[in-house]
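[STRUCTURE TOKENS]
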Amino acid sequence: MNQQLAGYAPTPVAARMENHGRAMLKVAMASGQDLFARTGSMVAYEGFIQYEPNPPAIRQIASQWVTGEGTPLMKCAGDGLLYLADYGADVVVINLNNDALSVNGTNLLAFDAHLQWGVERVKGLAKFAGQGLWNVQISGTGWVALTSRGTPIVVDCGRGEDETYVDPDALVAWSPALKVKGKRSFKASALIGRGSGEAYQMAFSGSGIVVVQPSEDSTDRLRVQG
């Protein structure tokens, strides 16, 4: 291999999911270890891997889940190495250990198929955001990969008694155990946020983390019919 390209070659497998650079996810696939991944996110693979768009498990759990690109998830199965990406967004890999995470649907790249998951409305925000926001809650022990429009910040809400405020359009994920409420901020609307995030924020309190991206992307939020 040309020495100038050698630094970009695949590295030995060290985990089920890991980063290959900033914006690509490498998944070690094996029989019986199926994966749910964002539809259209596959950029390359080695070995024998099959893909099933809109499998029954997704239709049953997220029958009303709609995004601008159609079916939100595909099922991946087989043996080999699978590479996923989402238009150059940063990839964040999380290994859940009998834990749970609530994820903005547009920031969900992939997760182990054996994890428990479902689409849920974000409580306490509907009166501020019209029909409200819907997230994907994932729990159990296994791997999850998220995307972020730029390098995210992870805020530990358990460090103090003050609430943590986030623009909904910049929110990536949070611990479901956190208390969430909406907060109007008319005076600050001209100074922070853009679009629908200007007039209100999400306030988090309790023990847990909040993942925030340096981008207020409101063009492709997780939406639900009705």
Remarks:
- The mean pLDDT is 82.
- The longest strand covers residues 90-104.
- Helices lie at 56-61.
- The longest helix spans residues 56-61.
